[in-house]
Design a protein that fits this description.
The protein is an alpha+beta fold. Helices cover 24% and strands 45% of the residues.
């Protein structure tokens, strides 16, 4: 008798679990299908723009969102403005392809499988002794997520891992307000074109790492020309290290490593930090 009741109870539990799994699977499928609707993507786009514009001083514009959300997100015609009248974009991209692990967000991790930036174009100039691109990512004083770390601490609040950032056909344009040392043989206004790069980024609460696997570009200067750059930047809130930096152009190759301390890239008053910091450098010219 007892065995019969145990059997019935076990059979009931299995059927219940099976039904629940079917219901959850169907609901998840319906949710994924709903996310692919144009109305859903328009909603996601508006929420992304609103969240950025409410948190940062810059203004974000995105023409449309595509891809298979939430695993693959494509942003088309992206522009970031630093000036209120939006006369000129500080940073513009033809397309952004983002492959992400959505489950990692639940653990306060941003795990991006790949990030492809197509035709990014940065227009740099000074605004009140501050670079316009930096002003874009300054957090608003009224932002509910502003912390004591200062401007642009988005990476600091999450553990971030991006194993592959690819830049395709990028460019950087310098306004006459950007002061470039004459020794470089490259004056402003000017541009750096044909930028191609592969970069890795890893950021945790205590450490920030940028590994430049490859960076190449063209500088319109007879003394510079085509350039290649590789190396690593590391910061743990106290030490700022440039490790294994290798610079090459048509006529020279220079390698160096450098260290500055105390420097916290995510703290305010970065210029003051560098003015008071201690520096060490090793140069290898070949």
């Amino acid at each position: 008798m007892i065995l019969r009741w145990v059997y019935k109870l076990w059979n009931f539990l299995l059927k219940t679990i099976g039904i629940l799994l079917i219901v959850v699977t169907v609901l998840a499928g319906l949710l994924f299908v709903a996310l692919q609707l144009p109305q859903s993507k328009e909603y996601v786009k508006n929420e992304l723009i609103s969240t950025f514009n409410n948190q940062f001083e810059g203004n974000l514009q995105v023409e449309r969102i595509g891809g298979f959300i939430p695993f693959q997100v494509d942003l088309h015609n992206v522009a970031l403005f630093s000036d209120p009248d939006q006369s000129s974009a500080a940073l513009a991209l033809d397309k952004v392809e983002l492959s992400i692990n959505p489950w990692a967000l639940l653990q306060r991790n941003i795990e991006i499988y790949s990030l492809n930036l197509y035709q990014p174009s940065a227009s740099l100039y000074q605004i009140d002794d501050e670079l316009n691109v930096g002003k874009v990512f300054n957090e608003r004083a009224s932002s509910p997520v502003t912390s004591t770390r200062g401007a642009s601490n988005l990476l600091y609040r999450f553990d971030v891992y991006v194993p592959a950032i690819t830049i395709i056909d990028g460019s950087i344009h310098f306004d006459s307000s950007i002061e470039i040392p004459e020794e470089l043989g490259f004056s402003s206004p000017n541009s750096i074109n044909d930028i191609e790069s592969e970069i890795l980024i890893e950021s945790t609460e205590r450490q920030f790492l940028v590994d430049i696997l490859n960076f190449q570009a063209n500088v319109p200067s007879e003394s510079i020309g085509d350039i290649r750059l590789s190396g690593q930047l590391f910061n743990d809130g106290h030490f700022l290290e440039l490790n294994g930096i290798r610079f090459r152009n048509n006529s020279a190759s220079v390698g160096f490593s450098a260290e500055a301390f105390p420097v916290d890239l995510f703290a305010p008053d970065l210029r003051s930090q560098f003015e008071a910091a201690n520096f060490m450098m090793n140069v290898d010219q070949s």
